[in-house]
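Protein in question kept in full:
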Amino acid sequence: MELFGRKQIFTDELNIDATNILPVLSEAFTIHEMNRSEIQYLFEYARGKQPILKREKEVRPEINERIVDNMASEILEFKLGYEFGSPITYVQRARKDMKSAGFFKRAIQKIFGSKESQIEDMRIAAINEMLTEESKSSKDLQLAKDVKTCGVGYRLILPKRFKTGSSVFDLLVLNPMNTFVVYSNDAYREPVLGVTYFPRSDGSILFGCYAKNQYFEIERGVSSGSYYQDFKVLPNVLGQVPIIEYINDFDRMGCFEKAIPLMDALNTTDSDRVNDIAQHVQNLLWGDNIEIDDEQYKQMRQDGMIVTKSPTGKTATLKYLECALDQSGNQLLVDYIKQQILDICSVPSRSELSGGSTGSATNMSTGWMAAETDAKAKEQIWTASERRETAVILSIIKNSDEVDDDISELSLADLDIKFSRSRTYDLATKCNSLATLIHIGIDPLRAIETVGLFTDPQQVALDSAERIDKVLFPNDTPADKTDEPNDDPYKKRQPDITDQPSQKSVSD
């Protein structure tokens, strides 16, 4: 099967209602069915059901080893562990406060001199608590597995069906084989319809269709390919499509999809190697000028000895026919193919360098830098869908009578999405770089962002501002901190770096 990513579904209808839902659904479902076959193939491929298992041999078909070196599963597990091993959470969006203040220190004084930021922190903490109750971290892993495998994944957010805790919404992960989203065919590419369906035991299909303002339940019968004209219509009080589509990249391809031809070649090479060994053990025996019948031959092979004689008096010849593959050359080919697969998928090599090689050289040589670069790009794509999800959650909270007014006042602009991924490799170098940037007068926030050591640089800058100020200006008196509002303290009081050792490590 040739794979080039899943096809995005569009419609010319900007508003879905009872008058146009049936033709839009019918056309979209046709496109989805093509995507569905590819999605099923990718899921099976990741589980190890790969084309090599169907290979047939014309010569000596009794020896036909079919080896699956399932690198698709290996790549998938690495991506899940590296990118989603730590929970995704919401944090306070601090950048807007910094911009409004004009410079760093004034922003700190403004924020910590007011209780508003503390109130906002508590609001966000309340939402994070709801997400914890909904087991969002485990559901993120489930969703990410779909996204990384077949390029797309879907989440449904609805008002809480059964109230059990503080959460007022349900987070549901939908099967990508039975779910799709339809987008407007214009420059905005906004979702106008989210569909999930449930095949029944009698062959009929029940469709749940979420438009911005209405929800439709439509049933398709067994005998007819057309949809029933009588369907249920309910209001959608959220004013948004609650089915959120997540994608792995803009082509909607899985994390290993581009490397499938190489993986198939790897399976073929490994299978041929094993076949060669098996055929060597069971080599054909060639005899010339030998008088022997089938029964004698079988008995001699069983006893481990063959006695021959020539009926014509000529020299009898008996030997194995051999045609062995170059196993050393094959191993070089296998290693090359595996490395190409890892490079294409931005996955570090399993063969780590030994010895004293450390730091950025090791990271680059083993592919960790490529993995980090790819993960950062994927974060931006994931964040776009996550913000759509957040908008639906906030809408449910605002429409709920069980949530405090303080929490319902949160807006999408108050939140940032935080990805927690280990970035502590090459720690000494990054710490030295951070210290150098701050001591030469670079804005602390920009310095923290540049080194890439923290997942939440804005919050780190806020939390560390007072300590950074003491390090830069250790001799300041209280009188020094009474600058006029329009004065920039960093401009007036640049730190004296003449006594700073140029090569000294912060760890010394």
